[in-house]
Specification:
Chain A is of the alpha/beta class. The first copy, chain A, is built from 14 helices and twelve strands. Chain A is 45% helix and 15% strand. In chain A, strand 1, helix 5 and strand 2 form a beta-alpha-beta unit. The structure holds a DNA duplex (16 and 16 nucleotides).
DNA sequence: TTGTATGCGTTATCAT
DNA sequence: ATGATAACGCATACAA
């Protein structure tokens, strides 16, 4: 490794002290114009770059944000892009780690990042995460932490998320309005708030329509495997099969779709389907899949903004909860022809 | 920020020197068992964590790999996952930065990461990148660098990539075999090797079949915008429109598909289509889209492996070129019924 | 305006 | 077996 030029090299060459060089390099303090000029010139020649590591050690700050995400699918990648955007502008670098939906890996990532590598964390929980001691340790060290998307009330920290209950409600209500009467819900792992809230929204809509909540119609399944296909197959083989499915992710919706097609059922006539995330693919499959859209990019940006606010303020902003609104995008998979109108 | 316990704190408390503490903490050198025990005990109590920053400064190594990618779409995210996998196992942390297909941002990212934050780089070029001086600077500093996926001969460094020419050839040959006679190619920006190689494969297949290469059938379009849709529209409005399209990414193929559907053309009868990357969505659209599959996860793993080899070896491994083989997945969009067999 | 000394947290060299 | 000291690269309080 070619040695990088340091302040010492410049000082030695110019026969002045390192402090003077340091001062000349930054536009601060008093330093004779000529001295500054010669320093700047030599620095240029030697292609001097300040050693950030040394600065970090000195300042006890790295200007780096650790981001831990369960995976990098379409929505999450979009959120990360939002974080990136804001961070870059604020002079921060972002370190993205994937927990791969694994609790153990989330812990390892957290530890590694906190080993003085980052100033704080922006995190979204893995599908396995139930205990959050590893995150509490971060807070004990008074490091800023923002939770986004997959949040949990167990962590007292600023959070940015979608109004998941509202989203579940919107999706289900829409299905009800389209005349579906036996609506199933493919939700996520029970330990994830995101699963439960979306499910709650689903139940709220059913109750509101005086429809009974049937536990057989509720399927919890992991994110990291495509259980959705098999779960749907089972659902469709039931004596009284559902006539609509609300899946809390588009991946699950796609899995469901495969099973539905296999059964030669027609969407939206025989069965309705609504997904979640508005993955571009939902618009392209046939039939196109209705989906809940969330402002993922904005969500990421907001998480980063809050993080940076925390960095810049001394007081701990622990009570802050940003909740973004979902939007239902209606496509072919759930849009029944207005038969009633013609009758 | 709660002060982290340091070696000094332990030394002071135990009234011994920092060097002894340092030695006791690692299992090395001679240190009286009792001393070690008391040090370890106190370290435990104070929740002592070595300050990596200080170590990095001392060792001039960060055990961190900088990864720069143009975006985080399905294939690239998969490759990054591969890099992650190997890096984690080897004790390295990964810092992922997105250039967002922007040359300027790629430069900024490179600079930032090289500011003593990472030991080296694993990169895939942005769609805008034509000049590579910023990467040459990395090499001048003798920092390990591996180029993957979107490579360029302008950078003399180990590289891992798909056999893009073979892929283009496979796709096109398949279309020819299916009886298509006027095959268009939606390729990427001219400055990207990936675009050109896939195009070369396309041309090779045409030549082999004694079909003439028509420049009107070749469309270069950016990755970061969905020009594919408009480009296809134009293609389909030509006097002698193509009867098949080879798109060098699934996103482009999807764009093309939209235009084809708009024209009410039937796939695969009126027109054939082959995409690239084997994005899960290709299997779900109707008709499902044939696509080139690449071992993305393996590709990422290999890039990281080479990187780590470079880190561990003194000699510079500059001449190494790993080329992985593509596989054609045939689906409905290009699979014409075997009419010939019935005749 | 400039230089000296000290410290950030750690390890390594050289004494003792 | 342990301690003192220097070093990594930089910034800054203090002295000159």
């Amino acid at each position: 490794m070619e040695r990088q030029a340091t302040i010492k090299d410049i000082a030695r060459a110019l026969k002045i002290s390192t402090s003077t060089v340091s001062r000349a390099l930054r536009n601060t303090y008093d330093v004779k114009p000529e001295t500054r000029k010669s320093v700047l010139k030599l620095a240029e020649q030697l292609n001097y770059q300040p050693n950030q590591l040394a600065l970090h050690l000195l300042k006890k700050q790295t200007h780096t944000i650790g981001v831990i995400v369960p995976n990098l699918d379409y929505v999450i990648a979009t959120m990360v892009k939002g974080i990136d955007e804001v961070a870059l502008e604020a002079g921060y670098t972002v370190m993205v780690c994937q927990s791969n939906e694994s609790y153990g890996r989330e812990i390892v990532n957290t530890k590694r990042l906190m080993d003085s590598l980052v100033d704080g964390l922006i995190v979204s929980l893995s599908g396995e995460t139930a205990a959050v001691d590893h995150f509490k340790k971060v807070q004990e060290k008074k490091k800023p932490m923002v939770v986004f998307d997959r949040v949990t009330p167990d962590i007292i920290a600023p959070s940015v998320r979608l109004d998941n209950e509202e989203a579940g409600y919107l999706a289900t209500k829409h299905l009800i309005e389209q005349g579906y009467t036996k609506i199933a819900c493919l939700t996520g792992p029970k330990n994830l708030n995101i699963s439960n809230k979306r499910l709650e929204g689903y139940m709220k809509a059913l109750k509101e329509a005086d429809m009974k909540i049937d536990q057989d119609m509720i399927v919890y399944c992991d994110f990291n495997q495509d259980y959705a296909y098999f779960a749907t197959k089972e659902l469709l083989n039931m004596k009284r099969r559902p006539d609509a499915i609300f899946a809390i992710s588009d991946k699950k919706a796609m899995g469901a779709m495969l099973a539905i097609k296999e059964k030669k059922l027609n969407m939206p006539n025989d069965i309705g389907l609504v997904g979640f995330n508005n993955d571009p693919a939902t618009a392209l499959v046939t039939p196109s899949i209705s989906s809940i859209e969330m402002p993922a990019f904005e969500l990421g940006k907001m998480a980063a903004k809050i993080f940076i606010e925390m960095m810049n303020s001394e007081t701990n902003i622990t009570v802050r909860e940003e909740v973004l609104k979902p939007r239902l995008i209606i496509r072919e998979s759930s849009q029944r022809l207005p038969l009633a109108g013609k009758a």
